[in-house]
Design a protein that fits this description.
Number of helices: 19
Helix content: 55-70%
Strand content: 5-15%
Radius of gyration: 50 Å
Distance between the termini: 98 Å
Number of strands: 11
Oligomer: single chain
Strand order of the largest sheet: 1-4-6-5-2-3
Length: 677
């Protein structure tokens, strides 16, 4: 009979669209105390054998292929997954009817893969020759230590996952040593790399600052004297990472099956054979008996099998103990019997001397009777090893003989008692053999019933499949009916559109939509141009001030610079309610100022004054910002409405509310009246 080969196992879980905090906590054992372990073990519908005393053996592999205790990462697993999705710009589709749930048509955003192998091989890698029953959830394994081999297996498997799907996409690699079988969970994000869309254009790199790169449009917007500071280069077409389960694992069932088959082969070549694990056998190539062994059994069935095996083992152990006792008793009986026979034969041989006497010797024997009796007594004493203080008589000799006979009688009684014990033990052995036979028959019956249960399950699945097939046929029939109805309605629709009134109405609607789209695009373009105009005016005002000999901004300059900074912040989406946002807006505003013909001292002074002005002397209240945005929106409605904020007409300062009152904020940027800049 061919021996069963130890094989590696790779189980890819069901496609996942979301990953809850509870699932992440279970994988990392976060918050799992002894009570939690016990509650998981009492779930009879699942085959759980969690052992709390082995929780400390669990570990995980993190970036850089480092081994750390399980759950030591301060960021939970579900948050790490969300962070990676945010980096890739992946957002699942939400259910319109249930806003807190992910829609059914949402793409899969993660894959949970379980790596393991033959139970005995994985047990040897993790625990070596240490005695441990991993199927007992209540055993005390607090003294168990992990072997270095399991760490090497985990590292090799982690590096295999990194080569397959990229280390940045391995969100978690958790190794569980507190269950029946040692295994590892690898949570991965399926990511494909695609080339960026669009044409390959030119870009301009600053000679002094290579990190400053401008597009062709931005380069042309610079003054002519600044363009020479840039070198023209050809931009390369990069790649973009995006989440795509279908592109990685296969769009169709056949492609996915081939991908899984290749995955098993690669894992065997790169990891499995190093640890004596053969390639896993595909499910369709297994025999019916092997398929039944791989089917999931409920905890009730597994517990019944475990108790039956335990009872048989205990009976076999007791039977062996009784047989050993019976064997010892038999040896003792044989030894005692030999001693008794030896004692009897020796005693009789020494007292009764065999021989035949002739009649003619009677007289001579009588004469020597006394001498013979004395000689016989002496021989008896010498043979028995007895010692006498005085001359023995026949009476004393008879008494000693009776004592020796009684001793042999006690030995005989002891032998009879041993025979009785052996007989009772043999009866007990026969009873245990009958019990073992009964338990074996019960286990065989249980296996047969389990086979029937599996066959019933197959029959139920077959009936369910037939019902689904019938429902699909009905749906196909309904779809044909709907297609026929659709064709009829489509014919009526075309007939309606042949009417002149509908054609004219369609033309007018189309023209209106095109006009609205064009106006919206023009408005957005004007909106950006107005912001750029405000920024350009502010920078030009600051440059003119730098070329003058004055040390203070006048009101006109202050307003122009103030609104230029606000325009920069609005364009770059910076928050003027924070110090960091204001500083970033000012730095960006100053970076575009042309300091041509300005001395280095003047540039430093004007830069410092601008920072003091923008960060200390003016306010950025929400009402001021809202009025500014409303003003920009108002000015972008028509190409003729723009006016300079730094001009003399004060259009921005003279906006009014619906009741005729003046809008606040746009006309007074400083905190105090008369404040100099």
């Amino acid at each position: 009979m061919e021996t069963k080969k130890p094989r590696a196992s790779i189980h890819v879980g069901a496609d996942k669209k979301s990953f809850s905090a509870q699932m992440g906590n279970e994988a990392e054992r976060r918050g799992w105390d002894e009570k939690r372990y016990q509650s998981k073990n009492v779930e009879t519908e699942k085959n759980n054998h969690y052992n709390f005393s082995r929780k400390y053996l669990n570990f995980e592999v993190i970036k850089g292929c480092k081994v750390v205790p399980l759950g030591s990462n301060p960021v939970p697993l579900h948050q790490r997954l969300q962070q990676r999705h945010d980096e890739l710009g992946f957002k699942p589709y939400m259910d319109a009817k249930h806003p807190n749930q992910v829609a059914q048509n949402s793409p899969n955003g993660l894959v949970n893969i379980i790596f393991g192998g033959d139970h005995e091989v994985m047990k040897l890698l993790a625990f070596g020759e240490q005695q441990i029953d991993t199927s007992d959830p209540y055993a005390d394994n607090s003294s168990i230590k992990l072997m270095p081999a399991i760490y090497e297996w985990a590292k090799d498997t982690y590096q295999f996952c990194c080569r397959m799907w990229g280390e940045d996409n391995i969100i978690g690699f958790d190794v569980h040593c507190d269950e029946t079988g040692v295994h590892a969970h690898a949570l991965t994000v399926p990511v494909e790399q695609v080339k960026k869309r669009g044409r390959i254009g030119s870009q301009y790199v600053n000679k002094d600052n290579p990190d400053k790169v401008l597009s062709t449009k931005e380069w042309k917007a610079l003054p002519k004297e600044e363009r020479s500071n840039y070198i023209k280069t050809e931009s390369t077409k990069g790649v973009v990472e995006r989440v795509s389960y279908a592109k990685v694992w296969g769009e169709r069932a056949k492609e996915k099956s081939q991908y899984l088959s290749d995955l098993h082969t690669k894992y065997y070549n790169e990891v499995g054979k190093k640890y004596g694990l053969e390639r896993g056998i595909p499910y369709h190539e297994l025999s019916e008996e092997e398929k039944r062994e791989r089917r999931h059994k409920s905890k009730v069935v597994l517990e019944a099998e475990r108790k039956a095996k335990q009872a048989i083992a205990e009976a076999e152990k007791l039977k062996a103990e009784i047989e050993a006792e019976a064997s010892i008793a038999t040896l003792q009986k044989e030894k005692a019997q030999k001693e008794l026979n030896s004692a009897k034969s020796g005693f009789l041989a020494k007292i009764f001397q065999p021989g035949k006497y002739k009649k003619e010797e009677t007289a001579k024997l009588k004469e020597s009777y006394d001498a013979g009796v004395k000689e016989t007594i002496g021989n008896f004493i010498k043979a028995s090893g007895l010692k006498w203080k005085s001359e023995p008589t026949a009476e004393i000799l008879g008494r000693q003989y009776r004592m020796l006979w009684d001793t042999n009688k006690d030995l005989s009684n002891e032998l009879k008692n041993k025979e009785g014990t052996i007989s009772s033990k043999e009866v007990e052995i026969r009873g245990l053999r009958a019990k073992v036979t009964t338990l074996t028959e019960e286990v065989n019956g249980l296996k047969y019933r389990l086979t029937l249960i599996d066959e019933s399950a197959v029959e139920r699945l077959r009936n369910a499949k037939n019902a689904e097939t019938a429902r699909a046929d009905n749906a196909e029939s309904e779809l044909d009916s709907l297609r026929s109805t659709y064709q009829n309605l489509l014919g009526k629709w075309y007939a309606l559109w042949n009417e002149p009134e509908y054609n004219e109405a369609t033309r007018m609607v189309k023209e209106r939509k095109e006009r609205e789209a064009r106006l919206a695009a023009e408005k957005q373009d004007r909106y950006q141009k107005i912001l750029n105009r405000f920024i350009a005016e502010g920078r030009a005002t600051l440059r003119a001030f730098a070329l003058s000999n004055r040390t203070n901004f006048n009101d006109k300059e202050a307003a122009s610079i103030y609104y230029g900074i606000m325009a920069v912040a609005h364009k770059m989406e910076l928050d003027l309610g924070t110090k960091e946002g204001i500083t970033s807006a000012v730095n960006n505003f100053l970076s575009g100022v042309s300091w041509y013909d300005c001395s280095k001292f003047n540039v430093e002074c004007v830069t410092s004054w601008t920072h003091l002005f923008a960060e200390r002397d003016v306010t950025y209240e929400s009402s001021i910002i809202d009025n500014f945005i409303s003003f920009i929106d108002y000015m972008s409605c028509s190409a003729e409405t723009y006016t300079s904020l730094g001009g003399s007409n004060g259009c921005a300062d003279q906006l009014t509310n619906w009741d005729g009152t003046k809008k606040l904020g746009l006309g007074s940027p400083s905190k105090k009246k008369g404040q100099s800049y």
